[in-house]
TrEMBL record:
Stretch list, region Disordered: 413-445
Keywords: Cell outer membrane, Membrane, Signal
Descriptive protein name: RagB/SusD family nutrient uptake outer membrane protein
Domain of life: Bacteria
Organism: Flavobacterium soyae
Length: 515
């Protein structure tokens, strides 16, 4: 009998099952059998490394082509972007993957694959971080494995951050959720934990984990000079600031972002697209935390989200395209409407990764422009309107000084196939014309500055999993989505707990109102 990953809250627990294997064991995952064995340096390292995987866009980590269950890839793009007024499921509407249409149209129920996948990915990540922490918090771990104190502390800091990141996703999307802080070994423990902790308790734990991580990670831009993808102290400070933002702790937001600024680790890239350019990963100045996708790795570690782009998924809404100011380079760098590809998601402007289920481009989670706009929001909320406007104008200045490259595909003159092969042709244009994205003027009106901030975040962060969370935390989701022609109800402020989870807990796990 081996440990399997089963559905419901038990996805996070790795309990025994021989007949009902609903998902497959992801490569590199730590089972409780392994966790109970004598740890080695390799198993300790692996337990932390595998904890990153649920953030990636690798395909089929938890099941094999379970589209309806939302388990083919991480669902944040569905939950945060397709659900918003920025994105449509496809460039050409069709009946493919109707569960995504239900998210887009707010007709989803508690059996929809979007919330189901998001729940399972996050609790799988929490399971892995809890196993890693169980290893690393063993007081004898250094003598048992030979790990150095410095390396142990670094891995502890990473694990605490990752657990907080997964809980951040859960609490913002579902509200009250089960809080599991250690590996669980029995069914009784599992059912005891299958109850929802108040969201305030979850937020408190997120903050505690991050504050602990902050003391453990080195005071350098990268925690490891050879593995720059690992969680850094800057990422921890940034997520602490975002936690404060979502709880309207404006003073903490300002303090934490200011602390990040004083490290000198980050600055705005001169060119907007450098944040997403797969050829400039870990050489740019702005990205604070991303997942490191690698092509042709064994086991596979490529960016599978590029695959559905080859089938026409993830298109901009007409409203999103119309929201950009004239000549804003960020519009073309987000989506190439003539070629129907999404540059940000592909990591290139030539469409080269389109349709590739093993693409090399990273997935960006936190970058400096986003963080600066958090500070601008906090300053505006506390009456420092000029400070907020100064930051907004920094973001606009970078955008208007970005030179735009335009790439189209043309027939390759050397092609001998039918139909002929194509090749990308890129042309570099001049800077945007004078008058593009002018500085916002001084204003003493909070509502005016807030409107500028909302507009700036939409242009700057489009298709980066920020739009719907922003609309909800600003309290304008219903207003905006209704104007967008969607029937957004009060219950849609939270997603439903997956019905399979409620059923498997024998009703101990309660459902969100209205579902």
């Amino acid at each position: 009998m081996k440990y399997k990953y089963i559905t419901a809250i038990l996805i996070a627990l790795a309990l025994t099952s021989c007949e009902d294997e609903l998902t497959t064991d992801p490569i590199g995952a730590q089972t409780m059998e392994q966790a109970n064995s004598k740890p080695t340096l390799t198993s300790v390292e692996s337990s932390v490394t595998s904890s990153y995987d649920m953030l990636s866009n690798k395909l089929n980590q938890l099941a094999e082509w379970d589209w309806n269950g939302g388990l083919v890839f991480q669902n944040d793009i569905i939950i945060d972007d397709i659900a918003s007024d920025d994105m449509e499921k496809k460039w050409s509407p069709d009946g493919d993957q109707p569960w995504m249409d239900e998210i887009n149209n707010f007709t989803f129920t508690s059996t929809n694959g979007g919330p189901n996948g998001l729940w399972k990915y996050n609790y799988e990540g929490i399971k892995r971080t809890n196993i890693a922490l169980n290893f690393l918090l063993n007081p004898d771990i250094e003598s048992i494995t030979g790990i150095t104190t410095q390396r142990k502390n670094q891995l502890l800091g990473e694990a605490y951050f990752l657990r907080s990141y997964y809980y951040f996703s859960l609490v913002t999307n579902f509200g009250d959720v089960p809080l599991i802080l250690a590996p669980i070994k029995t069914y009784q423990e599992a059912f005891d934990k299958a109850v929802r902790a108040p969201k305030e308790t979850v937020w408190s734990q997120i903050k505690t984990d991050l504050e602990t991580a902050k003391t453990l990670l080195p005071n350098t831009k990268y925690s490891s000079s050879t593995e720059k993808w690992r969680v850094s102290k800057g990422a921890v400070i940034a997520l602490l600031a975002k936690t404060a933002l979502y709880n309207k702790d404006w003073a903490d937001v300002t303090t934490l972002v200011s602390e990040l600024e004083t490290t000198g680790f980050y600055s705005l890239d001169a060119n907007y697209f450098d944040n997403f350019n797969m050829n400039k990963e870990y050489a740019d100045n702005e990205v604070i935390f991303s997942y490191n996708h690698v092509k042709q790795a064994d086991p596979r570690k490529g960016n599978g989200i590029c695959a559905p782009l080859g089938w026409g998924f993830f298109a901009p809404s007409t409203d999103f395209l119309a929201s950009f100011e004239p000549n804003d380079p960020r519009k073309l760098y987000t989506v190439n409407t003539s070629e129907q590809w999404v540059n940000k998601l592909l990591g290139t402007t030539d469409g080269g990764n389109k349709g590739d289920d093993d693409a090399p481009n990273n997935k960006v989670f936190i970058r400096y422009a986003d963080v600066l706009l958090w500070k601008a929001e906090a300053l505006n909320e506390t009456g420092n309107y000029s400070g907020a406007i100064d930051i907004i104008n920094q973001i606009r200045a970078r955008a208007r000084n970005t030179v735009t490259t335009v790439t189209v595909r043309v027939i390759d003159p050397k092609s001998t196939t039918t139909p002929p092969e194509t090749m990308p042709v890129t042309s570099v244009g001049p800077p945007p014309p004078a008058g593009t994205l002018p500085d916002r003027p001084n204003s003493g009106d909070k509502a005016t500055v807030k409107a500028w901030l909302i507009s700036e975040r939409r242009a700057e962060l489009g298709f980066e999993n920020q739009r719907m969370p922003d609309l909800k935390r600003w309290g304008i989701a219903k207003e905006v989505m209704t104007a967008h022609g969607k029937i957004f109800l009060d219950k849609h402020m939270l997603y439903p707990i997956p019905q399979s989870e409620v059923d498997a807990s024998a009703g101990l796990l309660t459902q969100n109102p209205g579902y």
